[in-house]
Amino acid sequence: MSVVTNTTTIGAIELPSRRNTELLLLAFAVVIPIFAYANVGLSIHGKLPPGMVAYGGGLAVLAGIAHLVVRRYAKYADPLLLPIGTLLNGLGCVLIWRLDQSERLQNLAKRSFGHFSESAPRQMMYTALAIALFAAVLVLLKDHRTLQRFTYISMAASLVLLILPVIPGLGADVFGAKIWISVGGFSIQPGEFAKIVIAIFFAGYLMVKRDALALASRRFMGLYLPRGRDLGPILMIWAMSLLVLVFENDLGTSLLFFGMFVIMLYVATERTSWIVIGLVMSVAGAAVVGATASHVKARVTAWLDPFACYTKSGACEQVGQSIMSFGSGGVLGTGWGQGNSDLIGFAANSDFIFSTVGEELGLAGVMAFLLLYGLIIERGVRTALAARDPFGKLFAIGLSGAFALQIFVVAGGVMGLIPLTGMTMPFLASGGSSVLANWALIGILIRISDTARRPAPAPAPSPDSEMTQVVRPS
């Protein structure tokens, strides 16, 4: 006698979404800035700040909205990106509010503009708009691969964004750098958005051309040099970055623009020669422009010896004050609200806000912030490795590389490692363009990570295998 049993096809194993982990981390990401806010108020005024409840509640609501959007539209996304972005953004608002309490900056604003207005409330408004943009990216961008269709459109759009600040009547010259446009009383920095748009073009272009770019014609000193006709793309990008540097006096965007392309080119082709060629070309271009452009030359002079021209140049004074801020902070810092980084002036809450971290939180605080930034970069690289399509891999590594380069040039500039670039520290510095662009970047990385971690659908059952006869002996 035998027994016949029916078995059905087993579906795909459900992977954990890690959304509860994200929610727990978000709770810490909201509580830590609230404690920091209370610490600043107690340190400066001797009492809890009156807006602590409103600030904490607002940050919690924004974080909750972002979490619900991720839970609904990107269920399998990386659980660390949103909490780290929230923590950095929340601490950035606290740092800006701390500098708003400085009597020196208040008096400086009154002497220069006739009035003083706090930057922290505007930063919270920009944060709310950034979370709305973050949610829009996840809701509207169902699949990151659709962006590949706009490869050459994104190239044109990025060129427009880079050209806008030099158009007379539209661009604004701020302390020698032409990186802003003024629209309806609001100032926008197009370069912050250009880094995302140009990454779409680089990813789409290199995905198609990587085989040709990987070919080598000869070997010289251990390096495989590319064919002459394949040098065209990197020469074009190099020339465009130099034009940005010359016409906008913007060293930061130029380095970011060219460096991101070289990183993506190396990842696409796996040729070390592209890295060497890119470094040589970037150093050569920066050296030529630094010797001829007055604005860049002043920053190079301030970098070489800021105390030699301390009383003669504003750039030297800012770098000198920044270096002294880091030095006076020591290992553990002077404490929230107990530093003097406001002596830097107007740039204290934008270009040089990291100096406040170095003075009031010390080396330990600086390393903690750099570790948080490093985690975002690491999760971006991990997302690139996990992505199943070449466009997603290149796009994720391009965004991560651009983010890493921005951290390097800003931190290196305020610490005196490299010349000042005029860029702002992501999530920390005051300014709407930066926080909007970086939350959009986080949203795109979350979308790519969701696609990469989402389990593959179970194969459709075959009619021939719907029923399997298992014969057991009686």
Automatic annotation (TrEMBL):
What would be an example GO MF term here? lipid-linked peptidoglycan transporter activity
Listed under GO biological process in this entry are: cell division; regulation of cell shape
Record keywords: Nucleotide-binding included? no
Residue ranges of region Disordered? 453-474
Q: Which UniProt keywords apply?
A: Cell shape, Membrane, Transmembrane, Transmembrane helix
Q: Which GO terms describe its cellular component?
A: cell division site; plasma membrane
Q: Where in the cell is it found?
A: Membrane
Q: Name one Pfam family in it.
A: FTSW_RODA_SPOVE
Lipid bilayer topology: Multi-pass membrane protein
Q: Which residues cross the membrane?
A: 23-40, 52-69, 81-99, 123-141, 153-172, 192-208, 228-245, 251-268, 275-296, 352-373, 394-418, 424-446
InterPro entries the record matches: FtsW/RodA
Task: State what protein this is by name.
Answer: FtsW/RodA/SpoVE family cell cycle protein
What does the record give as the organism's lineage? Bacteria, Bacillati, Actinomycetota, Actinomycetes, Kitasatosporales
